[in-house]
Amino acid sequence: MDVHVAQARRTTATVLKHWSLPETPAEDARLVVSELVSNAIIHGSGDVRLRLRLRHDEHELRIRVTDDSTAPARRRRASAAGLGGRGLHLVACLSLRWGVADGGRTTYAVIPTLTEAPPCRRTTQSSTDPTC
Q1: Tens digit of pLDDT for each residue in 50-62?
Q2: Vertex 119: Cα angle to 36 and 66 (nearest 5)
Q3: Quick count: other Cβ atoms within 10 Å of Cβ 90?
Q4: Would you state the pLDDT for residue 129?
Q5: Cα separation of 91 and 107, whole Å?
């Protein structure tokens, strides 16, 4: 698992550097990618695919992680001693919005690219958002 997550994180860092994304949103995006890819590997099935889309006009970076499972990602309550259950909480805290699409196969997050624009951190548990 760590190899795939690390590879996704490195690829994301390279792409975002090429796109000249400021460090704060790039750091948030790397963490979100790590969490979404980890969840897809642990809870999903089949190949895990990552898509990044920068929307300059909307000042947003859209992250999509897709696998073959139709079970949608969902936030869990983490126990104090538990190691898991915090990933989607982190995604929600760093994102303008997040949710699931494609019948549960895709989990997406939208990261603000302007460092001075605070994220509204609205959580969308399910969505048919075709633009994300």
Answers
A1: 999 999 888 999 9
A2: 20
A3: 14
A4: 47
A5: 10
